[in-house]
Design brief:
It is found in: Membrane. The protein has 16 helices and 11 strands. By secondary structure, it is an alpha/beta fold. The longest helix is centred in the middle third of the chain and has 33 residues. The two termini are about 50 Å apart.
Length: about 475
């Protein structure tokens, strides 16, 4: 099996050389941004007269400015802002840059005070007041570029997953779904009893977990994930980490926990044993008064803001065929309570009578039914659906407390009747006008993926997540992703 392993690992391909340049790219970007900010701070201090003083400090700033810039970069590096593992995911990168910036400002202020050095206060305020947001924005832009490159198959880490075939496929599915992480699964290691050509999902098996060190070293992988069933003891993992110390392979332990937000996870080492604590789901928090007040004020504002557009949409629907303007459909809300969900009518009047025939034609068996080029959609209905304007009347459902601005999709009663016990958790919160399902693809998502996103939202709710989803909804609507 060892010979087979070495032979197969040659197909992993060369490492992505651009990965090693990410820290350098971030350093160059920070330097350019700081240089521009410091120039603006010097000019702004002179032009705006911020904390103007009778003494001319411009010549002093020409000397002090570069020293402050260099010190700022050094502090960011000391805080780990240029480590390889901070780029591309999580908030750790932003926290390190922000904390380093605050420490630099504090050290500079205290140092100037103790040395009785007359540093321009206007320069100080402008440099850090503009510099901190500029650095964070620059890192965000760099991250978006990294994500785009990874979705195109660039900047990839070569990954091996060790564990039982079932756990390997589970981890591989998550890494494949989140392509922006840049984890390309090149092979798997399984227990000797499970050795075969590949896993059920097609991941090639390149060796046995019992031969982990030799197989991983021969594969030239960048990362190795240890999932369930890979190890027989903690001592085995410790020895593997020791053996891989000189191989520059990152070791990641992947517990059998998925779809849990980082805010609910706390790792607390006890006696050398890292214990993962998972906070309870937050579905009850999503039903409290804070979110309700946000919905009430938000819907009231949006009703006033979109009233001219809603009047125009209503007129177009009415003039199209003379039928009713609104379509009222029974949906299931929080705790299984049914309500009339309002939408602008986008289909012909007898759309419901044609539904059974379309089900048979498309072979539909269950879940949400959507099809491209639906013959029942009217001409104004296509325009309304493309930009989700048909859902604007649901603002009145939000105002009445039947729905929320953000939440799971409101299901039909017949869909709820076919729900399994796990899927019923979607009904613990009010359904939403938008949600993770919409900003992640809307109708392009499979039923299983839409349910997964809704359950993730229910269990990991936060107000910041709601605000983020509302912001992403604007892009999803104007981009018309998955809308038909």
């Amino acid at each position: 099996m060892t010979l087979l392993s070495v032979k197969r690992t040659r197909t992993l391909g060369p490492p992505s050389r651009a990965l090693r340049y990410l820290p350098v790219s971030a350093l160059v970007l920070d330097f350019l941004l700081m240089t521009g900010v410091f120039f603006l701070a010097i000019v702004g201090r002179r032009r705006l007269g911020v904390f103007d003083s009778p003494s001319d400090v411009t010549s002093t700033l020409q000397i002090v400015g570069p020293l402050v810039l260099l010190s700022w970069l050094v502090v960011i590096a000391a805080f780990g802002g240029y480590h390889d593992d901070v780029f591309g995911a999580g908030t750790d990168e932003y926290k390190r840059v922000f904390n380093a910036s605050i420490v630099t400002a504090g050290l500079l202020g205290v140092g100037c005070y103790l040395a009785k050095f007359q540093l321009s206060r206007g320069f100080f305020l402008l440099a850090f007041g503009l510099g901190v947001p500029a650095l964070l924005l620059g890192r965000w832009v760099l991250r978006q570029a990294v994500h785009r490159a990874r979705r195109q198959g660039k900047l990839q880490y070569r990954v091996l997953i060790a564990g039982t075939p079932e756990h390997v496929d589970e981890i591989a599915a998550v890494l494949s779904r989140e392509s922006w992480l840049g984890y390309h699964v090149s092979g798997a290691l399984v227990p000797v009893a499970d050795l075969q050509e590949e896993t059920a999902s097609g991941i090639p098996i390149i060796g046995a977990c019992e031969q982990a060190t030799s197989v991983i070293t021969a594969s030239d992988a960048d990362l190795v994930f240890f999932a369930g069933g890979a190890l027989t003891s903690a001592g085995q993992l410790r020895r593997i980490v020791w053996d891989l110390e000189q191989a520059h392979v990152q070791v990641v332990v992947a517990p059998s926990v998925t779809d849990v937000s980082g805010e609910r996870i706390k790792v607390r080492p006890v006696g050398g044993l890292p214990l993962m604590h998972i906070d309870p789901p937050r579905s009850t928090d999503a039903a409290r008064w804070g979110k309700r007040l946000f919905d009430l004020f938000g819907s009231s504002f949006l009703i006033l803001a979109f009233s001219p557009l809603m009047a125009y949409a209503a007129l177009r629907v009415k003039l199209a065929d003379g039928g009713s303007v609104f379509f009222r459909q029974t949906r299931t809300g929080r705790d299984g309570k049914q309500f009339g969900c309002l939408k602008f009518r986008t289909m012909v009047v007898d759309a419901e009578e044609q539904l059974a025939a379309l089900h048979a034609q498309m072979g539909h068996e269950g879940g949400l039914f959507k099809m491209q080029d639906d013959p029942r959609v009217t001409k104004p209905g296509k325009w309304l659906r493309r930009y989700s304007l048909d859902e604007l009347p649901q603002l009145f459902n939000v105002w009445r407390g039947e729905m929320s601005l953000v939440g799971p999709r409101p299901p039909l009663p017949r869909e709820v009747a076919s729900y399994e016990s796990d899927v019923l958790r979607r009904l613990r919160v009010r359904p939403g006008m938008t949600g993770l399902w919409q900003v992640s693809g809307r109708s392009d998502l499979s039923w299983a993926e839409a349910v997964r996103l809704d359950l993730y939202y229910v269990d990991n709710w936060s107000m910041l997540q709601d605000i983020s989803i509302l912001g992403r909804t604007v892009g999803a609507v104007f981009g018309s992703r998955g809308a038909y």
